[in-house]
Amino acid sequence: MEKDLYIITGASRGLGLAMAEQLLSKGCRVLGISRNKNTALAAFACQHDCGLQQWALDLSDAQNAASCLKTWLYSFGPRELESATLINNAGVIPKIAPLSASDPAELTRALRVGLEAPMLLTAVFLSATEGMPIPRKVLNISSGLGQRPMASQSAYCAAKAGLDHFTRCLALDEALKPRGAAVCSLAPGVIDTDMQAQLRQADVADFPDQVNFFQLKSNNQLLTVQDAAARVLAWLHRPDFGLRAVADVRH
User: Fold this and answer.
1) Residue-averaged pLDDT of the chain
2) Catalytic site residue 6?
């Protein structure tokens, strides 16, 4: 039975899916939490006899997702695992528009998925695993937009900035404990995902940076999800992971 547990949100597509595949291929146990299950990932796990579970949960209902995770984690015996890692990867970009033209429901969903869910899931993950004598890590997938403002991206930028700062606070909490978790909010670089396509298709009148994202694609400057996943996981497994609460794989 796989002893290294990885919990990944947004594991049904994009970077989350690529990370799940790479971890499964190395014999790790993976729990994917997404709005929908990925049948190809399930087939991959079956083919390679891997330990995969997928939960179809809406992370905008963060309290329900956190409650499910808490109950599940408490079902493990104290020595059933050799390590436990939570990767908060899921994120949402609402309609690309100035804040004044944004849908309040879309803004709410983006902030709940991008910031509230990571905080609640991290809280129950750390609480449920605190008594386990194992290494524990929390990796929050951030963005350069957590540090840099961008027009028509208020919700996404705010969620990622909040993710970075909550991780800084969390690192201080965990540093006070005898066996505190290692935590990091990591920007993974610019990746060729559905989110990038959404940015390229935006109206230039609403999104002045649209041309920049179009050029990144035209100039082949985007990482594939497989390459990005490999870089992120390599960072996660560095011996100095967590020494910097906020980091960027490009630096």
Assistant:
1) 93
2) no
Residue with tokens 């005898």: 178
Q: Are 234 and 139 in contact (CB under 8 A)?
A: no
Percentage of the chain lying above the pLDDT 70 cut: 100
Total residue length of the chain: 251
CATH number attached to the domain at 4-189+224-248: 3.40.50.720
pLDDT digits (tens, 9 = 90+) for 194-235: 777 787 877 887 787 787 777 777 788 788 999 999 999 999
Q: How far is residue 229's CA from residue 10's CA, in Å, rounded to a whole number?
A: 13
In angstroms, the CA 150 to CA 156 distance is 9
The one catalytic residue among 156, 166, 213, 241: 156
Domain boundaries, the chain: 4-189+224-248
Residue-wise pLDDT tens digits, 91-117:
999 889 999 999 999 999 999 999 999
Task: Give the per-residue pLDDT at 200.
Answer: 83
d(CA 87, CA 137) in angstroms, rounded, equals: 8
What is the separation of C-alpha 171 from the centre of its chain, rounded to a whole number of angstroms?
17
Alpha helices per DSSP H over the chain:
14-25, 39-47, 62-73, 104-111, 117-129, 154-175, 194-200, 210-218, 225-236
| Token representation of residue 52 | 């995969």
* CA–CA distance, 51 with 178 (Å, rounded to integer): 30
pTM of model > 0.85: yes
